[in-house]
Amino acid sequence: MLRDQSFDAPIPGMSMTAELGARPWQSPPKYSTVDDAIEYYLDRMSSEEFLDQLTDVMEMGVPVTSIANTMQLGNVMEGIHSVDVGMLVLPVLVEMMMLVGDSAGIEYDSGLSKEAPMNEKRTRNTLVAKTARKLQMQLNEQEDKEDKPMVDEPIEMEEQEEMPEEKPKGLMGRRK
Amino acid sequence: MRGFNPAIVAHLNLDLDKIIGEEKTQNKNTGLLAPRKNMMNKGQNKIDNPLYRVANHVKILRDKRNELKDA
To answer: Which end of chain B has fewer CB atoms within 10 angstroms, the N or the C?
Structure first.
């Protein structure tokens, strides 16, 4: 197994197989200053979709520092900003994510303490809760779908049996 | 034991009080031959320092977080 894994590493000189500047991190970054990079991150982090995903990941017990580091590393690789700007931006990202976690009212692991406060059981409970929530949402959707046709379809009126006309029986009744 | 994560180091080493600090009050010499500019800080402004700007951002976010905790 160990021998197989060693072949996954890049071979010496592999970095020179692509033309210089062909990789995103070899060209000038899109945002060269800290302020531009912070603005870029804050814009991205303010979207509803991102916030939902972030709270889910934080709730599962992934440390905030790990998420922040992964984010900035990914953007360095994509040529969004340079490595040094990424390092400077890191505290802002961590603080921003902790603010998101606090405002969402979830329990999260900041990753700054030496002990990992969220144990395995807690993570499993969160996963179970998340799956239950998803199932509930699916059930609600199905119920909505079942309810909708009842409203959309024209209500068919039951054919009423024609009542036989009562013939006037009195003396003054019309005789045709 | 967690692997090396620069986010932890960067966050823990960001001493806001030290970086932002208080504005130093300069003792103005009123003499005619007194230097008008402080030559030590010549051409250097705090706002030009990226770390200072980052610390300001962090301070705003941290204050907001503390407000949430207190409420």
So the answer is: N
